[in-house]
Specification:
The complex is a heterodimer of chains A (651) and B (207). Chain A has 651 residues and is mostly beta strands. Chain A is 8% helix and 43% strand. In chain A, the strands form 10 sheets. A 10-stranded mixed beta sheet of chain A has the order 6-7-8-9-17-18-13-12-11-10. In chain A, strands 41-40-43-44-38-45 form a 6-stranded mixed beta sheet, with no helix packed on it. In chain A, strands 35, 36, 37, 39 and 42 form a 5-stranded mixed beta sheet that branches. Chain B has one domain. In chain B, strands 3-2-1-5-4 form a 5-stranded antiparallel beta sheet. Chain B starts with a helix and ends with a helix. Classes of the chains: A mainly beta (651), B alpha+beta (207). Chain B: Keywords: Membrane, Transmembrane, Transmembrane helix. Chain A: It comes from Muriicola jejuensis. Chain A: One of its GO terms (molecular function) is copper ion binding.
Chain lengths: 651, 207
């Protein structure tokens, strides 16, 4: 009996070992391969080897992660108010969220793209799009702050954006929803043939990144879903996937899924650029905001622009062609060589690959299959290079490695499929958890991908983490793609809803990341450049407090002579010149948020006291051992009081 | 004697390095300062190792009541030292030239070396006295008044030479490039003396 017991235990032990070997987190490449845990473990004090910038979707902001650890480093506020730093609440940043619709404190941030030179990531800026109230933003990759936001007129659902050409000549913004151009009061069911789809080309100044809307192409009223630049041999072209070529205006779920094939629109932007340069196009009245944040004045300004140049595609023959692509293509991805354009028909099982060379030959040979609104449709079989018979369902988006392989996400079958560019053979497939939307390989949308990690961004989280009620953060997975087979390494939650991401090697940004702003370069209109200039000035019922901070006091910290009904501007200048020593400012009853002031920076918070009393303010960022002492008082007197304006420190 | 005199002309010129390079370096590292803060002590003033280090050291030191690091105009030394060094370089090279012309004996080389050594020791004494004052003459209203285990008030004098632990900071104080220039120059002059001495002895042997 005893013997049986022992052998039972032995069996149990054996089965444990087998279970151990089947651990899905472990590599199956043999005994020498390091474990997945080692591959993602960044020891304390060590740093990640890649930056990843994940779109925050409906959070309106951009999140910064490290790879392979999956640790989140920062949320960069772009289109949404952000009380953590005071973005969109401080007087300096409110203009950044100005639009032709007034102050819009939110957007749906979709597709980050890092600036490039010669088709390779250069790490100067990252561009993102606001989908809802069409906007493009430029974020500095030295300060990791939003520097510029430009509104896109004649557009709606700014989705096939914000992708750049290979020398960052343009950032491109295409409309998802076609609309009347110019906007007017008309019956919705007269959509077909009347609505337009605007594709906007915004130039980027090479020295300072300043954006300017150069021209808009008014395309037929399809939905322009995603886009990618041509690169290397196809540089000068831009490719846009379309759906709803049926031009339905209701129940698109069914009505826009009727055509067997929609199109990838190929646009020769260099030709159009020349056409516009030679006086082509129509100047159209418009109204759109252009918001610029100046690093030296630490202040944003908003200007309304009143005109835009529009281009009718039929006026520039030879610049527009339509490539038939099955089943409402979503992704429209160009491989690193610039030769192949991958259309992912999202209602299909297969991936369609077009060839740039074949496209050029078909244009040359006029292999047309009719036209749409004057734009030639190329014959499908003349441009198609191959089909990937994946066996999956619902291909969405493709990125590339540097070994001639492509990786496509499949939403419906919830997997990433690796295939060879050229033979179209499927090499590997791995499940994702769950329903993957987009994926990112650092540099995967450039001439030079870095083929170490792949990040799959999933739409559904379900049981991957401890439950947090009905609302869960989305989830991402990191795969090691350095071997023949993909290896799932790690899961991590993502903030908002990432619709795409961009990544780059850490060494591209790490040395240039700014540590402080120089106080001696601060050109803010209300700077307090030394504590002896701290003061309070009254102008009618407007009061300006010039206040400085250093560990750990405000100068001044006692203010009297403020009255109910005043509008008090606290202009806080942080005098620290040490890395990572911000000071915050908040005051009781503030109708905005606190502000977080970086070393050498000036920020302004407005306070409108409504009650008589003595009201405290304090530093919100734990700045030193004496942070709790960093506080002050404002005496608020009745509106008709005669208390003299005075301020002090240490008296 | 010519070789020795040339050495004596060149040796003092090495002291000119003090006008370019720091004499002494003090570094302060702590867990929250993975890139340590540091000061370079030049003969004409104290400078940052990295920009804003002085401001940040002063910012930290105000908690324990230490004075701010002196600006050049706040210490006579920073005005006097460059003049003294200049004078010594001039004197040394002049001695060398005169010896080369046969107007002075090599004993003057030793004289210069000894004078320079005395001045050097006085300089170190003065430097140490300043550090004692800097580290112990604390503001009675300091935010933090710390005591040693025996109850005496804690002081913060940086070491003259070497490493010490002060609260959470590792403080290292070492001679810097300028000091090595001075050391080399002085060694050359003492070498010149011995060379001259040997030369004289061999001359005596032959006469």
């Amino acid at each position: 009996m005893k013997k049986v017991k022992y052998s039972m235990l032995g069996l149990l032990g054996l089965s444990m070992i087998f279970i151990g070997c089947n651990d899905p987190g472990k590599s199956s490449n043999g005994a020498l391969a390091s474990s997945a845990a080692e591959k993602v473990y960044i020891a304390p004090g060590q740093r990640d080897s890649y930056y990843a910038f994940l779109s925050g979707g409906y959070s309106g902001n951009l999140t910064v992660y490290g790879l392979p650890s999956g640790r989140m480093f920062k949320e960069i506020p772009v289109f949404s108010q952000f009380p953590t730093s005071g973005y969109g609440y401080s007087e300096e940043t409110k203009p950044m969220l100005n639009t032709s619709f007034g102050f819009v404190p939110w957007d749906d941030l979709h597709h980050p793209d890092i600036s490039q030179t010669n088709g390779e990531l250069d790490g100067r800026w990252i561009f993102v799009n606001g989908n809802n109230t069409p906007r493009i933003a430029r974020v500095s990759l030295s300060t990791f702050e939003t520097e510029e936001i430009i509104e896109i007129p004649n557009s709606a659902g700014n989705h096939s954006s914000s992708f750049i050409t290979e020398n960052t000549e343009y950032v491109v913004a295409g409309t998802r929803f076609s609309v009347p151009v110019p906007q007017r009061d008309m019956p919705i069911n007269e959509y077909k043939g009347n609505f337009k789809g605007a594709l906007s080309f915004i130039s980027v100044a090479p020295d300072n990144g300043r954006l300017n809307l150069e021209f808009q192409i008014l395309m037929p009223g399809f939905n322009y879903d995603l886009s990618r630049p041509g690169r290397a041999k196809s540089h000068g072209w831009f490719f846009f996937s379309t759906y709803n070529t049926e031009e339905a205006n209701s129940l698109l779920e069914v009505m826009a899924s009727q055509n067997d094939k929609d199109f990838i629109a190929a646009v020769n932007w260099m030709k159009i650029e020349e056409y516009v340069k030679n006086g082509g196009g129509t100047k159209m009245p418009a109204n759109y905001a252009h918001n610029v944040y100046d690093e030296e004045t630490h202040t944003g300004t908003s200007t309304m622009k009143k005109e835009v140049i529009t281009v009718d595609p039929t006026d520039v023959p030879g610049a527009f062609y339509l490539l038939p692509t099955p089943k409402s293509p979503h992704g429209c991805d160009v491989d690193p060589s610039g030769q192949y354009i991958i259309g992912s028909g999202k209602l299909s099982a297969d991936i369609t690959v077009h060839s740039f060379d074949k496209m050029m030959a078909a244009i040359e040979g006029k292999k047309f299959d009719g036209e749409a609104y004057g734009i030639p449709i190329l014959k499908f079989e003349e441009v198609m290079a191959g089909t990937v018979k994946s066996g999956g369902l619902g291909p969405l988006h493709t990125e590339f490695d540097d070994k001639g392989n492509a990786y496509t996400t499949f939403f419906i079958s919830s997997e990433v499929v690796k295939w060879n560019v050229g033979t179209w053979e499927v090499l590997d497939r791995k499940p994702t958890y769950y329903s993957v939307g987009h994926l990112m390989i650092p540099g995967g949308n450039s001439r030079k991908p870095f083929s170490k990690y792949l990040v799959a961004m999933n739409k559904i989280t379900k049981d991957r983490y401890l439950p947090t009620g009905p609302e869960m953060e989305h989830s991402a997975q990191i795969y090691d793609i350095s071997g023949d087979k993909m290896e799932l390494l790690y899961d991590f939650p993502t903030h908002g809803e990432p619709h795409y991401a961009a990544g780059c090697p850490a060494e591209l940004l790490e040395p240039r990341s700014k540590k402080i702003y120089r106080l001696d370069e601060n050109k803010h209109k209300y700077v307090t450049s030394s504590p002896d200039q701290a003061r309070v000035e009254r102008n009618g019922n407007e009061v300006h407090v010039y206040m400085s901070t250093i560990r750990s006091h405000f100068t001044p910290d006692n203010i009297e002579g403020i009255k109910v009904g005043d509008k008090v501007y606290f202009h806080i200048t942080n005098h620290e010149q040490d890395f990572d020593v911000p000071h915050g400012f908040s005051i009781i009853g503030q109708n905005t948020s606190e502000i977080l002031v970086m070393p050498g920076q000036t920020k302004t918070s407005v306070w409108e006291p409504k009650q008589v009393g003595v009201w405290p303010f304090y530093c919100t960022d734990f700045c030193s051992a004496l942070h709790q002492e960093m506080q002050g008082y404002v005496r608020v007197s009745p509106a008709n009081a005669n208390v003299e304006l005075s301020w002090s420190l240490g008296e | 004697m010519k070789k020795a005199s040339i050495l004596m002309i060149v040796g003092p010129l090495f002291l000119l390095g003090l006008y370019v390079f720091p004499l002494w370096n003090i570094m302060l590292g702590a867990p929250q300062y993975p890139d340590p803060l540091g000061i370079n002590i030049h003969i004409d003033g104290i400078r940052d190792v990295n920009e804003f280090d002085i401001q940040n050291i002063d910012g930290l030191n105000h908690y324990i009541g230490m004075k701010t690091l002196p600006k050049p105009e706040e210490m006579w030394e920073f005005n006097t030292f460059p003049k003294v060094i200049g004078l010594m370089v001039f004197l040394g090279s002049l001695i060398g030239i005169l010896a080369y012309l046969g107007k002075l004996s090599h004993k003057w080389f030793l004289g210069w070396f000894l004078l320079m050594s005395v001045l050097g020791v006085l300089g170190m004494y003065d430097f140490n006295a300043w550090m004692v004052d800097y580290g112990t003459n604390l503001d009675p209203n300091a935010i933090m008044k710390l005591a040693n285990p025996d109850g005496t008030p804690m002081t913060y004098k940086p070491p003259l030479f070497g490493h010490t632990k002060m609260l959470n900071f590792d403080v290292t104080s070492l001679p810097a490039t300028g000091a090595w220039f001075m050391f080399t120059g002085m060694m050359l002059t003492i070498g010149a003396f011995f060379l001259g001495h040997k030369h004289q002895r061999s001359n005596k042997l032959f006469t």
